[in-house]
Design brief:
eight-stranded antiparallel β-sheet, 7 helices, disordered N terminus, alpha+beta, five-stranded mixed β-sheet
Length: about 325
């Protein structure tokens, strides 16, 4: 009898632990966008390892007028790897241990979540693991943050029928955006915020619009400045939006939904005015529809941090889905 009770007790404990684990897996992560919880003891954090973490993950975001970190980093000692910390979306755990280890574990404590485990016998080994894997970690975390931002947007979006009809695409655009200007192949949406506004531009160009006789960046800037001259103006005369020429824009060759894309980041200004801010521009080569689809986001928020505003615009743009043309029925 006692033996039977013992096995019942063991089974109950096992069942409860399994249920607890399953419940933990179903918990939703919390925390602000673009934040990393670094679990590392103070002696390591205050030394060379901590410096390397800050240099890699809190380096300045490119394309912003003021210096802002790529991620906001919160450091906690290893003994606090329990409780609310477990629900952080991005976690880096660094320990000095006899076993050398680099591992990315998805959804270890909650969902969606990246837990990066880095350990080594010595400081040089840990530094080497960070150096070799930093770009992979950043890429993974940024993708998770983009998807999380898109999930948040998806809960409250505006109607995009006009965009669907005009450009045969769909975008997840959060409530608060309004259509402020529409032309045959151009749409401008704007959202007012406490101290400024954010905007999304959608337009299309002929497939050969990128001038092969010019550097790609220069060709893209010429086009966006011509669009600004046509449609984006200040209240006074001759105050059209142009690309600020004090800083050279950054160009990246990427892929969006299987399509070759030029991503350009820089700053804009109103000519003969004092307004300015960052922009992110995507020229998507849409060969199936014989066009270049341009999606751009820019913001105006003087004296405020702009990293997360621009990140939301990036998430909106990268939510684009191309609507296939209906096939004609054979007679």
């Amino acid at each position: 009898m006692k033996k039977a009770l013992f096995f019942v007790l063991i089974f109950s404990v096992f069942l409860q632990s399994c249920q607890f684990k399953n419940n933990k897996e179903k918990e939703k992560t919390t925390g602000k966008i673009n934040t990393i919880s670094v679990i590392i003891d103070d002696p390591l954090w205050n030394g060379e390892i901590g410096d390397t973490i800050r240099n890699k993950f809190a380096s300045p975001v490119i394309g912003l007028p003021q210096e802002e970190p790529l991620f906001t980093i919160n450091q906690f000692p290893v003994k606090l790897l329990e409780g609310y910390m477990i629900n952080s979306r991005n976690i880096i755990v660094i320990k000095k241990e006899s076993k050398n280890r680099f591992e990315i574990v998805e959804n270890e404590y909650a969902f969606p979540q990246n837990v990066i485990h880095i350990s080594g016998k010595t400081t040089p080994i840990i530094l080497d693991l960070i150096e070799k894997n930093a770009s992979t970690i950043i890429s993974k975390m940024r993708q998770t943050e983009i998807e999380e931002n898109q999930r948040a947007i998806d809960t409250a979006t505006i109607t995009t029928k006009k965009i669907n009809k005009k450009f045969r695409i769909d975008l997840k655009i959060p409530k608060g955006y309004n259509y402020v200007l529409e032309r045959r192949k151009f749409i401008w949406l704007k959202k007012e915020i406490t101290s400024g506004n954010t905007s999304i531009l959608i337009y299309q160009l002929p497939l050969g619009a990128i001038n092969r006789n010019l550097p790609v960046t220069q060709s893209i800037i010429r086009t966006r400045d011509s669009i600004g001259n046509l449609y984006i103006h200040g209240r006074a005369r001759n105050t059209q939006m142009v690309t600020e020429d004090s800083y050279a824009p950054y160009l990246f060759h990427i892929n969006i939904k299987g399509k070759e894309t030029y991503e350009t980041k820089g700053t804009w200004e109103l000519k003969n005015d004092f307004m300015s801010g960052p922009f992110i521009n995507y020229n998507i080569i849409d060969r199936a529809n014989k066009r270049i689809l341009v999606l751009e986001g820019f913001c105006y928020d003087p004296s405020k941090e702009k990293r997360d505003l621009m990140f939301e615009l990036e998430a909106i743009i990268k939510s684009v889905e191309f609507i296939k043309k209906p096939q004609k029925k054979k007679k």
